[in-house]
Amino acid sequence: MYSVTHILSCSPAQVVADLAEVVLARYPAAAVTLITGPRMALVQLRVVEGVAESQFNAGEVLVSEVRLELAGQFGFGMVIGRAFKHATALAVLDAALRMPGDPHADLRPRIAALGQALAAEQERRFAAAAATRVAFDTF
């Protein structure tokens, strides 16, 4: 339902960091090379207008980003806010999951479980919001 990047960027930072530690334990420290970051950046927040479905830039969002290589494989991590540890862990996992032959396939069920938890939380929030909806056509 959700992409791996979406799941990991919306998951708690410590959970993502724990998954990244599982990956890093399989490599020597020299296998990780920082390309840029961790650093703060501003990115444009693009929104789709609901009627005409046209895109526009609603403003800028402060993010933390990291670019790195893990055993020669590029990885990128970006999260909203000042969260260097989360962005770094996301970059490590991005690189690990891009590796040829999928040597970190054992992480996929754990990420899928995080995705299910994320979907359940979103459903709970939607249900809570729906309970406050006003039906103006019944007035």
Automatic annotation (TrEMBL):
Single biological process term from Gene Ontology: organic phosphonate metabolic process
Molecular function terms from GO: lyase activity
Keyword Lyase: yes
One Pfam family here: PhnG
InterPro entries per UniProt: Phosphonate_metab_PhnG (IPR009609)
Record carries keyword Signal: no
Keywords: Lyase
Superkingdom per UniProt: Bacteria
Name of the featured protein: Phosphonate C-P lyase system protein PhnG
Source species: Candidatus Viridilinea halotolerans
